[in-house]
Design brief:
There is one protein chain. With 262 residues, the chain is of the alpha+beta class. It has helices at 24-34, 41-51, 65-71, 112-120, 132-139, 160-166, 204-215, 223-231, 249-252, 256-261; strands spanning 55-60, 77-80, 88-93, 142-150, 170-176, 179-187. The strands form two sheets. The chain has a three-stranded antiparallel β-sheet, with helices on both faces. It is elongated and about 65 Å long. The termini are far apart. 14% of the residues are buried.
């Protein structure tokens, strides 16, 4: 597993990602420096669960000579609980021996050469023998490609193998009869996630209100406009023909004398 120099000021900074970047003796030093802090006891069990992701964690009896001989041999880092009565703890970094030991966290901290060693130990079955779940874990951190060629052509000058190695890939060759499967692996570059500050994003509600305000016509509530509207309103007068004349009252009335003669 690849090792990285990690600057961690406190064991309280430990999480599921950086736990793989520190060794057991660095971790033990941070633990002992931090455990005297107030309220550390409330975080102790949570920290131990995080440590278990990458380390073997053994609670042992410091008064038992056999356990002392087993865990205090210099191969384990030792820490103690914040409460002395709980005893001692021995830590040792987990060794990834099988493909089934891989996880989305620890895959980021191994080299391409180590990965290909694990694949080679997988019964020599090649890439197709690996489960889909494990392939997904591997491909989250590595660029993988494969090819199968006759053994007589696999090392041809200017061929796929030579070109891939020139591009920085590690290669595993698995013999399959007269053919060879070549598995190429190269670590992916870690992509930094983009972060946006809240004040950099436009306020959608405010922007929408401003657009609506621009689209709405200005209201004119002046009396002058009301008068103009009334003057131009032909609703009432439109029911009469413009050429109609008002008749005299005599022409409109009935002739009583004519009626009586009937």
């Amino acid at each position: 597993m690849s090792k990285r120099n990690v600057t961690m000021e406190s064991i309280l900074d430990l999480n599921s990602s950086n736990v793989w970047t520190i060794d057991e003796f660095q971790l033990a030093t941070l633990w002992e420096h931090t455990k005297s802090q107030e309220n550390f006891a409330s975080s102790e069990e949570k920290l131990l669960n995080t440590i278990r992701l990458a380390f073997e964690v053994v609670h042992y009896n410091a008064k038992d000579p056999r356990e002392v001989a087993k865990y205090e041999d210099g191969k384990w880092a030792l820490i103690s609980h914040c409460k002395a009565g709980k005893g001692n703890i021995a830590l040792r970094k987990k060794v990834i021996r099988r493909l089934s030991d891989l996880s989305y966290e620890n895959i980021k901290h191994i080299s391409a050469a180590t990965l290909l060693e694990l694949i080679d130990r997988n019964f020599g079955g090649g890439w197709d023998s690996i489960s889909l779940a494990t392939k997904d874990i591997i491909e989250s951190a590595f660029d993988i490609s494969t090819t199968q060629l006759p053994a007589s052509r696999i090392h041809a000058k200017g061929g796929t193998l030579e070109n891939k190695v020139a591009q920085g890939y590690d290669v595993l060759e698995i013999a399959k009869g007269t053919w060879v499967e070549a598995i190429f692996a190269k670590k992916k570059e870690l992509m930094e996630k983009l972060r946006f500050k809240a004040d950099e994003l436009p306020d959608e509600d405010t922007e929408r209100d401003e657009e609506e305000e621009e689209e709405l016509p200005e209201e004119n509530t002046s009396e002058e406009e009301d008068d103009e509207i009334n003057e131009n309103d032909d609703t009432f007068y439109s029911s009469f023909a413009p050429e109609a004349e008002i008749k005299d009252e005599e022409e409109e009335s009935f002739n009583v004398e004519d009626d009586s003669s009937i």
